[in-house]
Amino acid sequence: MPPSLRSLLFLALLPLAMGAQAVVAQTVTPGSPTCPASDPPLWEVVHDGAPLHLLGSVHVLRPDAYPLDESLMEIFESAEVMVFELDLGGLDAQAMEMMERGTYMDGRTLDGQIPAEAFQEVTERLGALGVPAQMVAAMKPWMAALMLSSLAVQQGGYEAEWGLDLHFHRKAVEAGKTLEALETAREQIEVFEGMSAEAQVAYLLSTLEELDDAVDRMDRMSRAWRAGDAEFLADMIRESLEDSPELTERILFQRNRSWVPAIEGFLRDPRPTLVIVGTGHLVGEGSVNELLEERGWVLERREVGCFAG
User: Domain containing 52: what range?
Assistant: First the structure.
């Protein structure tokens, strides 16, 4: 079966996790007797107005990530405004647009953009997983990379439907909360579509090299997230910076800079707000947290009890 459209769109939010090199770290399995009361990565911006929390997300998870700790759910329940990276109400239509933008319409083909052996590997891997050869032939390199990553993590049981973003979005809709987005799906697609041809090819070749380890890296990332090991997550991102500087600038640092003024606007909102974005945007150099602190805001790490699941 081809990857779900929702998982494909959410993989656009997660390429750093998939492309990160192996990082060795000891993390604690949530639910174990030694599970620390610090998961997942959660911060509060300390100021005189209504509470604003920044919650680091993993966009694709397994069902065993739930239920979440009651203290985290209390923060959600007290929030009147929920802010996500993008509008999650029309993901399937947005993912279809991504598929269209990720396909050549001018007669070019993927095999004309990448080495022959790489094209053969792409077609074999995607073909074995139900993606028609005709679709593969016209894919742009960045779309082929996302498709490969999505299929790989789905094989490991990771789905956008279980990701923290969609989980809280569904609950927010049910509760009638105000929903806001930091960017549009079109802006997100442009992150990839606007890459140079060389960067697109490099991204695909890197994805192919690391594809067999994608689930293992996702496992380690999700464990670190659940245990609140922000330093481990920052290390993963720092490793990924070495090989894909253009992609990293476009998908991480550029977006961080554009989000900060919007988040400052929510800080002036009299209503309690919960902002949920990928954890990679909240840790390390150039993160949203660092940029907010540079602008004079004070952030405090919030401790959350261990996951029940």
Answer: 5-91+157-185+213-301
Residue 55 counted as domain residue: yes
In a domain, 176, yes or no: yes
Helix (H, G, I), strand (E, B) or coil at 101: helix
Q: How many domains does the chain have?
A: 1
Q: Which secondary structure element, helix H or strand E, spans residue 55, and what is its range?
A: strand 52-57
Confidence of residue 22 (pLDDT cuts 50, 70, 90): very low
Residue 133 lies in a domain: no
Q: Is 68 exposed, middle or buried (0-12, 13-18, 19+ CB in 10 A)?
A: buried
Indicate whether 235 belongs to any domain: yes
**pTM listed for this prediction:** 0.87
Region class of 49: left (phi > 0), else alpha (psi between -120 and 50), else beta = beta
- In DSSP terms, 273 is beta-bridged to 52, 81
User: Which tens digit of pLDDT belongs to each residue from 45-73?
Assistant: 999 999 999 999 888 899 998 888 888 99
